[in-house]
Design a protein that fits this description.
This protein is 72% helix and 0% strand. By secondary structure, it is an all-alpha fold.
């Protein structure tokens, strides 16, 4: 679950960074997750970079983001939780609250993965010979998919935090 939380936080940050929409609230959400990660050692370096942005005022962070060029398409990967998926038949052993949250995590991940597929499909369509208007629509569609993914990942981070707090 801790690895899942890092992946979700990284997706939220990467999408916001791609849109030049990183702000203090986002940094304060993502930085501690990356810093506390024990699964991906490279997360600490990213956390240090984010932490350095916190020394700036909100307006300065916005100015830094405005200077960046949008990266365009992102290479988002589908997210899996093989252990949780393999243990779904044993969820009855846990509290009703844990069961509810675990199933919610699985269903939200399925929706996120579908949205990742939609984004990838629309991105691939940008290489087809399309009329200008259709090309613009396809680009809008894959960028909207990123926003949908970001919107789904943020509450899922809260759900994962809740599950992790239950094990203590």
């Amino acid at each position: 679950m801790e690895g899942l939380r890092v992946i979700l936080a990284a997706n939220v940050y990467n999408i916001a960074d791609n849109n030049r929409a990183v702000n203090r609230e986002l940094i304060e959400l993502v930085e501690p997750i990356l810093r506390s990660d024990k699964v991906f050692p490279e997360s600490k370096k990213a956390a240090d970079e984010l932490s350095s942005l916190l020394q700036y005022a909100d307006e300065q962070i916005a100015s830094i983001m405005a200077l960046k060029k949008p990266a365009g398409a992102l290479n988002l990967k589908k997210i899996s939780v093989p252990f949780l998926t393999s243990q779904l038949s044993s969820l009855y052993l846990f509290s009703a609250e844990f069961q509810r949250i675990a199933l919610k995590i699985c269903s939200r991940l399925a929706i996120i993965n579908e949205e990742i597929e939609v984004a990838a499909f629309n991105y691939r369509k940008t290489f087809d010979r399309l009329p200008q208007q259709d090309h613009a629509t396809v680009v809008t569609n894959f960028l909207q998919s990123y926003q949908n993914i970001q919107g789904l990942c943020r509450p899922l981070i809260d759900d994962v935090n809740l599950v992790l707090s239950m094990k203590e």
